[in-house]
Amino acid sequence: AFFWLVSLLLASLIWFVSVHLSDREDAKLQYGLLIFGAAVSVLLQEVFRFAYFKLLKKADEGLATISEDGRSPISLRQMAYVSGLSFGIISGVFSVINILADSIGPGIVGIHGDSPYYFITSAFLTMALVLLHTFWGVIFFDACEKRRYWCLGLVVASHLLTSGLTFLNPWYEASLVPIFIITLCTGLWAFFTAGGSFRNVLKCLSCKQEDDSRVMMYSALQVPFED
Amino acid sequence: MITFMNNSDSEEEPCNERTSLMSAESPPVPSYQDGLPASEAGEAQAHRKRRTGSGRSPNNIADGDMSDSGVPVRESALENEEEELTLKYGAKHVIMLFVPVTLCMIVVVATIKSVRFYTEKNGQLIYTPFSEDTPSVGQRLLNSVLNTIIMISVIVVMTVFLVLLYKYRCYKFIHGWLILSSLMLLFLFTYIYLGEVLKTYNVAMDYPTLFLVIWNFGAVGMICIHWKGPLQLQQAYLIMISALMALVFIKYLPEWSAWVILGAISIYDLMAVLCPKGPLRMLVETAQERNEPIFPALIYSSAMMWTVGMAKPDTAARGPSQQTWDAAEDGRENHRSPSHADSQMSETRSSIPARPITSFEELEEEERGVKLGLGDFIFYSVLVGKAAATASGDWNTTLACFVAILIGLCLTLLLLAVFKKALPALPISITFGLVFYFSTDNLVRPFMDTLASHQLYI
């Protein structure tokens, strides 16, 4: 969350500077600058995700060296999930908390001609964004770990695409539906990246117990050897 | 905040930098490695002295994390284990501190956002006499700097006074002062708070009920804080009084003065803890010379420490005792309670198959408590509360400050685990908090507002 905040800070700085250096009156220019600011922010978020990956790798190595069995207590996949989730949470909260706070107060949505579905679509978009960040985190870390840079590029591209699709608001059919399709696909991709498969799902659903394939060896001369 | 290591070393161990800041109150425990201090258990036997945080008292994090494994293994392996334990328990400590700090901030922010009273300007404390209602920016800045200077000097004077009192063993005086302050805090400020909350929600309450409620609340609070009580209740009371104190600060400190004071306090904390002649450091050293626990009052503790007596000579022999840390808050507005975070470790599980395992050894290894001074709670909450009150109704700023403070706390505890000596805890968190407040309020807010108005997501 901290890393995401820092990236947002830098992006806002860039946007702020650009706005102040430009002509305030020109609405088209301001809108263009906003698009530019959003794109910069997306790229910076991914850069900071990568930086966080590097930091976690270092910490992971440190933990592994000092632990008893040479493995760190948290696997990289868990770290990827947590990192993605925290990015998602802070991003979602920052996007929606002010809207939520305003939704308590008295008012009418869309009284000046905007869409009356502002709140509900914001809620859905935020949910999609949180899920997306989680999935991107998993895929990103796995791609960095296995050095599949095309995966990285795809994640960044899908983030840019999602952000760009929100520019089509309030034409919600064109923005919400594709974003949810992207969410679904990214989710499936992350699921398979994290090692899931149809068989896992079936096993989980049928609640079968795993066969314990370990065998205890007993000997008259030895105490039982337990792993 | 000062970090501490409570270690007991064998007598012949040379007194180096690490040991000089430690309290030697642990009973002599044979340690297997020269470089490995045994777990401290002296807290259990040291009589508790009550100290008033009548002045600027140390904010400390104490970290005692030596493990007494009782295993004759190679020193490197033991050091590894020690490091691992440090990091493992370090992470646990961080979480154990996150929860109360978060709770305190939530209470403060919830109150600020809902009760109008604490955001209205109704005068100032006498410690900040210069008003900020001046026409020019320069004048306002000058007034806030002067206010800060006065406040910090009051705090310094109070701290020095406290150190002198402690040095000359005027314990009764401190004790009485402490009781008086916590009385005021628990009764008067609670009464005001309850009154304002009832006013906000337009709930009628008659005086007899009010009297009953406040009497019970205050009496139980005094008992829990100064004497014994269930740990959760004591923690809850400490969080509440920290929140009340923070609310008073938020209400009565003028805006610019508050920010400058926060900055100055963290610089003062840095100096007072790290400089050789700093009052806090002297306090710490005096307490360690006397084998007394430092500031058992005004400290938030997250666990009770149970120690168990052992029959075997090669493991830690400690008397069974229960230790609860009493803490109370000084009610005066200018006072800061000492911040003292201290993690103690009880005996770790002995894993030698050669030794017969007694039932005593089944004591959990997770009995370290973390202690954090109430002053830290107060100033963190002041920062977040001010952000909530003055950031033009924006929640993003509050959240950003919250995250920044928690990350600062994390980093401080990490540094503590690395350096293992007295470290101040305010500077990093407050610096992060201030940086994030000003940058979020001025840079991020317009960006996010513009994005939200077009319903754009990044």
UniProtKB/TrEMBL annotation, chain A:
Subunit: Component of the gamma-secretase complex.
Any one of the GO CC terms: gamma-secretase complex
Function: Potential subunit of the gamma-secretase complex, an endoprotease complex that catalyzes the intramembrane cleavage of integral proteins such as Notch receptors.
UniProt signal peptide: 1-19
Lineage top rank: taxon: Eukaryota
Record membrane topology: Multi-pass membrane protein
Pfam families reported in the protein's UniProt record: Aph-1
Keywords, in A-Z order: Membrane, Notch signaling pathway, Signal, Transmembrane, Transmembrane helix
Recorded family membership: Belongs to the APH-1 family.
Official protein name in the record: Gamma-secretase subunit APH-1
GO biological process assignments: Notch signaling pathway; protein processing
Keyword Transmembrane helix among UniProt keywords: yes
Transmembrane segments: 31-48, 79-97, 117-141, 148-168, 174-192
Primary location recorded for the protein, binned into one broad class: membrane
Record keyword Transcription regulation present: no
Compartment list: Membrane
UniProtKB/TrEMBL annotation, chain B:
Naturally occurring in which organism (per UniProt): Pelecanoides urinatrix
Gene3D superfamilies on file: Presenilin
Keyword Endoplasmic reticulum: yes
Function: Probable subunit of the gamma-secretase complex, an endoprotease complex that catalyzes the intramembrane cleavage of integral membrane proteins such as Notch receptors. Probable catalytic subunit of the gamma-secretase complex, an endoprotease complex that catalyzes the intramembrane cleavage of integral membrane proteins such as Notch receptors and APP (amyloid-beta precursor protein). Requires the other members of the gamma-secretase complex to have a protease activity. May play a role in intracellular signaling and gene expression or in linking chromatin to the nuclear membrane. May function in the cytoplasmic partitioning of proteins.
Span list, region Disordered: 1-77, 314-358
Broad EC category: hydrolase
BP GO annotations: amyloid-beta formation; calcium ion homeostasis; intracellular signal transduction; membrane protein ectodomain proteolysis; Notch signaling pathway; protein processing
Main location class: endoplasmic reticulum
Domain notes: The PAL motif is required for normal active site conformation.
Compartmental location: Endoplasmic reticulum membrane; Golgi apparatus membrane
Catalytic activity, EC: 3.4.23.-
Subunit organization: Homodimer.
Superkingdom of origin organism: Eukaryota
Protein name as catalogued: Presenilin
Comp. bias intervals (Polar residues): 340-351
Keywords, in A-Z order: Endoplasmic reticulum, Golgi apparatus, Hydrolase, Membrane, Notch signaling pathway, Protease, Transmembrane, Transmembrane helix
Keyword presence, Nucleotidyltransferase: no
Topology of the protein relative to the lipid bilayer: Multi-pass membrane protein
Transmembrane intervals: 94-112, 145-166, 173-195, 207-227, 234-250, 256-275, 399-419, 425-444
GO MF terms, alphabetically ordered: aspartic endopeptidase activity, intramembrane cleaving
Gene Ontology CC annotations of this record: endoplasmic reticulum membrane; gamma-secretase complex; Golgi membrane
